[in-house]
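[agent] plan:
  1. take the single chain provided in the ticket
  2. run structure prediction with default settings
  3. attach structure tokens to the ticket
  4. add a short note for the reviewer (M.T.)
[agent] executing step 1
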Amino acid sequence: MIEHEQALRPGAVQAWRDAIRQPTMRGPFLLVLLLTLLLLVFAALKPLGLMPRAAAIFPLWLHTLTELAAVLVALLVFVAAWTAQGRERSLNITLLGAGFLAVGLLDLAHLLSYKGMPEWLTPASPQKAIVFWLCARYLAAAVLLVVALKPDSALLGEAQRRWILLAFVGLGGSCVALGLAWPDVWPPFFIEGQGLTPVKIAAEYGLVLMLLAAAGLLVRQTVRARYSSADLAMAAVISVLSELCFTLYANVDDVYQLLGHAYKVIAYAFLFRAIFLFAVRQPYERLSQEIAERRQAERRLEFLAYHDPLTALPNRALLQDRVEQAIAEARRSGRAAAVLLLDLDQFKHINDSLGHGVGDELLRQVASRLAAVLRATDTVGRLGGDEFAILLRDVDGQAGVLRSLAGLQQTLAEPFFIGKDEVHVSASFGVALAPQHGSDLETLLGRADAAMYRAKASGRNTYRFFDLHMQDAVLHRMDLQSGLATALQRGELELHFQPQIELATGLMVGAEALLRWRRADGSLVPPALFIPVAEESGLIVPISAWVLHEACAQAAQWPAIAGLQPVVAVNLSALQFRQGSVEAVVQAALGSSGLAPQRLDLELTESILISDPASVLQTVSRLKALGLSLSLDDFGTGYSSLSYLTQFPVDKLKIDKSFLQGFGQTRSDTVIVEAIIALARSLGLKTIAEGVETAEVAQGLAELGCPLAQGYHFARPMPGAAMLAFATEHAAAATTGKAPA
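[agent] step 2 finished; step 3 output follows
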């Protein structure tokens, strides 16, 4: 009764409804419905006396065939389950396989014991056949119920599977031996002339209850997509119909025997289908899927070998092949091919201010636009970062390239819309022609790169064609980078200092450390030449660390002037902040030199502040907590400087020298300088003007309230020894009250 109550609970009913709605269950459900209707039809015909003669319905030979079919299917279930591999070698699959091997053996014993069969150790009889029948049915129902109760089962080792197999074979063999050797221990199940006994009918209803419970649990698993539970559920349900048939027959040859045996074979077929799907077909389907995924991965790897993963454009390897083809065509036709190298102007600023996600999407949109305006025979590829290479085939020299350049520049001039951001970009192009400028990709790219740098130096958003003079510039740049890489080890770097003067007293209050590179031959390399090379190559990080240590060490030797210790101002690079090393370097420099933190002034550029404002603000705040001061360099030259004054704890604004060129002469420069000084005063900040070259400019700055200045009017940058002498002279002047010479 417990199983009936469970089956009638709303949850169980809903599970059946959900299972029936599944497309994979509709066909089996219709079959069950048809078999049920067939059973009901025959049940209705029997009271009406319309049943045909029993002998004509289920003769011995037909019983033998149906039972042989059942035994064969049971063996197939065992073979399919036992040969399963991998994760299909679970406890449930093993139970089904080993259990139905034993069921098949008992079905064979039932077949041999059926009325009319030759004597098999003991005479054949309905009683003997029913004993083996019930043993087989109860074993099958028990296996299905155990599997239904435990849908998730662990994998088994080979030894465990063999023990389970031996246990079931032993159980089946014991039932056969008990039925043959001790027939009297079994209650009577069938009486000739009277039919089934109440014990037999009760035993069949016990089977029905077990199978209904198993079917209900298996249907719940079907709704939850548990392996092949649908077929196992159908096997249990059809087995219920089979057992109901065996509660109705009065003669072993009547129609209910035929239906019962036919239903049993159908139930076994569903069971085999469940095992086959799970243990045989599903592994092959998964294998076909690991194969499909592997082929997809191979295609992906092949694609990535020749394409850029971000933009899906050809990469350097594919460009190499296409350039070789284009050069061969150009030589045959007498025309030319061209390699264009383009670099987006100020892309780093977009990345830093709007984020790398916007930067990546911008690169994808740029790639799409470039490809759209080119001919089908041309190729655009991405070399990395914001650098793209374009191959133009079959062009008539510079004139043909210019037509393509016009279209490329025009498409990039249109705004890009990325989410809520409207982004404007431009590009600098360098052009090399083949075969006159080179006959391979590397040479052409190198020469296009030289032309592109010339375009950038010309103000960006333009193009340049390669000429031989540019090659000298490329070689010179390579020489700078190579020499700079070993300049520290060779002791070729040195610091010069430019004094910072208090306008009210004329006394030195500090000095800015300026990097100089003196090569082995004694020549000085201008900072404007080697600093950009150092930044692009990453050498600026170790060089900046050296500058900080050296500046602190030398400043520690400067004497006090008018009771105040002069500060040393050191420029920081944006790359130091991005790598997160600046705080440790500052602490190490202060610790090794013994310089008080109050005597160190770090000069920050606006590019540092906008690179990653949240992270930079944390770093700047920690530096400020050490006790040093911060200056914002080149103030007024950036478009967003004012917004950072309220966010970052700076102490000084440095007025860029470009505003002093027309100071006192043009109204615009004068107004700008006056506004910066007034703004700083209102925010409680000091101002220091750089590039002061005349007494008139110094006087004008003092009158406007600018307290500090540096420039040629006061002193040119000088080596460390001269700086020490300059500071000593000012210290003496402060003591005697005489102005320094």
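[agent] step 4 note for reviewer: The two ends are 116 Å apart (CA to CA).
[agent] ticket updated
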